Amino acid sequence: MRTLYRQQNVVFYAWLSAKMVHLIIISVGITLVYTWKIHDGSLTTVAGVLSQMSVGGFAKHNQSRLDKQIRELMDRIE
After folding, report:
1. Helices 2-34 & 42-77, crossing angle to 10 degrees?
2. What is the dihedral of CA 63, 64, 68, 70, to 10 degrees?
3. What is the residue-level pLDDT of the chain in tens, covering all 78 positions?
């Protein structure tokens, strides 16, 4: 049970880190647009889409893995 809790913490903090990187990328893109360093929001859009895809895929993969481990643990208890 303790290793499952540890794995959930690892997944959560990895997801949180990826989300923070996503926010930083978006912030930099918006700053560049508003300071006229670039004249198009395409950088922001592309960075946002790529970041969301990677965060979503990572979370989905780890959630299914954890669900499988929880089911196995519950089967062992029964």
Report:
1. 170
2. 20
3. 677 778 888 888 888 888 888 888 878 777 776 776 665 556 666 666 666 666 666 677 777 777 888 888 888 887
Task: Report the predicted TM-score, pTM, of the whole model to 2 decimal places.
Answer: 0.45
CA distance 24 to 72: 38
**Structure tokens that stand for 75 in this block:** 């089967």
The encoded tokens of residue 38 equal 């670039």
DSSP 40: -
Q: What tokens appear for 59 in the block?
A: 């979370």
**Cα distance between residue 25 and residue 21, in whole Å:** 6
